[in-house]
UniProtKB/TrEMBL annotation:
Natural source organism: Streptomyces naganishii JCM 4654
Residues that span the membrane, as ranges: none
Record's protein name: TetR family transcriptional regulator
InterPro entries membership: Homeodomain-like_sf, HTH-type_TetR-like_transc_reg, HTH_TetR, Tet_transcr_reg_TetR-rel_C_sf, TetR_SbtR-like_C
PANTHER family: HTH-TYPE TRANSCRIPTIONAL REGULATOR BETI, HTH-TYPE TRANSCRIPTIONAL REGULATOR RUTR
Single GO MF descriptor: DNA-binding transcription factor activity
Length: 217
């Protein structure tokens, strides 16, 4: 008589290391974002590992060099910011509310402090970075177009205008007192957003700034 087949208990535990590894990776990215904002992109990686509560070997197993870690931080921030706008649009269908959510979450995520690291540290055309950037740009173009069509947004502003103003109003950049600046940011951003509402109360000088204008600047 053939012995009954037994289930290998190791297979039931196979997912645990992957879940632990994912949590470690998320802790590293979260800690890196905080440290980069506080001290800039050149902070020692062992400080990031310490902040994340992992060993240096774990950090390097996930991110072989500084460029890989900075890129992951910037991409994750752009993804969360885009998701905030998508969620607002799905919840209410209000394009201007989605635009407001995007701008305020972008400030909370420190995009103005983190994105300049891209041009100074690594290839701006890395596929992951380009995909994250394209998602954000396409989404904001769609949201602004819907807001204009609904009569909510003045038609003489472009995506570039929004990006420049949001970045300037949510400064200072990394390592220059971001935390003490927080109490002003959302107040000033809301003043800016109110100025975008239709009908326009003034005529803007120049022409609307596009994403292509920003790339050529």
């Amino acid at each position: 008589m053939q012995a009954p087949t037994t289930v290998n208990p190791v297979q039931r535990k196979a997912s645990r290391p992957r879940a632990d590894a994912l949590r470690n990776r998320e802790r590293i990215v979260t800690a890196a974002r905080e440290v980069f904002v506080e001290h800039g992109p050149e902070v020692p990686l062992d400080e990031i590992a310490r902040r994340a509560g992992v060993g240096n070997a774990t950090l390097y197993r996930n991110f072989p060099d500084r460029d890989a870690l900075v890129r992951e931080v910037v991409c994750s921030v752009m993804d969360r910011t885009a998701r905030a706008a998508e969620d607002a649009l799905a919840e209410t269908g209000d394009a201007f509310e989605a635009l407001e959510r995007f701008v305020h979450v972008a400030a909370d995520e420190r995009i103005s402090a983190l994105c300049p690291m891209v041009s100074s540290t690594f290839d701006q055309h890395h596929p992951d970075l380009e995909a994250a950037r394209e998602r954000v740009e396409d989404l904001i173009e769609e949201v602004m177009g819907r807001a204009v069509a609904a009569g909510q947004l003045r038609p003489d502003v472009g995506v570039g205008d929004l990006m420049i103003a949001a970045a300037q109003l949510s400064r200072p950049p990394a390592g220059t007192g971001c935390l003490s600046h927080d109490r002003f940011v959302h107040r000033h951003l809301q003043l800016f957003l109110d100025g975008l509402r239709a009908p326009a109360r003034s005529v803007l000088p120049g022409t609307a700034t596009t994403l292509e204008d920003l790339r050529q600047a």
